Amino acid sequence: MARLNYGTLLGRALRLRCPRCGTGKLFTGVLTMAHHCPTCGFVFERGPGYFLGSTYLNYGFMSITLTAMYMGLHFGLGYSNDVLAIPLGLYCVIMPLVLFRYARAWWLAMDCYLDTTGMEEGRPSEPPWQEPSP
Predict the structure, then answer these.
(1) 121 located within any domain
(2) pLDDT at residue 118 is higher than 60
(3) Coil vs helix vs strand at 4
(4) What SS3 state is found at 37?
(5) Domain count, the chain
(6) Could you give the CA distance from residue 106 to residue 11 in angstroms, rounded to a whole number?
(7) C-alpha dihedral over 112, 115, 121, 123, to 10 degrees?
(8) Distance between CA atoms of 87 and 115, rounded to whole angstroms?
(9) Domain that holds residue 42
(10) Would you call 27 helix, strand, or coil by DSSP?
């Protein structure tokens, strides 16, 4: 199988689909990620603590956007800190939850682009459909 380009992997991440086949869903619930792809068997968590890197993506996005909003609203439009505290505080609580799924999907897509281990089509990265033992 030819190596997938980054645009294809990014598109699959934005649709929250398996980076290998593009059809299996990454999440089984709002915040619950599947262990493997139900279509091709690709195992999503490639090692212990694998998705820790996705928290850095989420944090980086939040830091940049919060700083830009604060600077624009406080220094650009002249809103006081008292007025901005509650809306920006809510932004800091709600947006990371919204971005959680996309940060994980993007992290997985970037890793699959840089490390193609297990990305061969038709070959599961672990025995198919085997849940990890507790």
Answers:
(1) no
(2) yes
(3) coil
(4) coil
(5) 1
(6) 9
(7) -120
(8) 40
(9) 6-114
(10) strand
Dihedral over Cα of 99, 100, 103, 109: its sign: negative
- Rg (alpha carbons) of the chain, rounded to whole number: 18
pLDDT band at 134 (very low <50, low <70, confident <90, very high): low
Question: How far apart are the C-alpha atoms of 109 and 8, rounded to whole Å?
Answer: 9
Sign of CA dihedral 11, 67, 52, 110: positive
Find out whether 101 and 58 touch, Cβ atoms under 8 Å. Answer: no
Assigned domain for 19 exists: yes
- How buried is residue 103: exposed, middle or buried, by Cβ count under 10 Å (0-12/13-18/19+)? buried
**Alpha-carbon dihedral sign for residues 4, 5, 8, 13:** positive
- 33-77 per-position pLDDT tens digit: 999 999 888 888 888 889 999 999 999 999 999 999 999 999 999
Q: In the numeric block, which tokens belong to residue 104?
A: 């994980």
What is the rounded distance in angstroms from the CA atom of residue 107 to the CA atom of residue 35?
15
Q: What is the pTM of this model?
A: 0.80
- Provide the token pair at 1: 């199988």
Q: Classify residue 122: in a domain, yes or no.
A: no
Q: Which of 23, 56, 92 is nearest to 84 (CA)?
A: 92
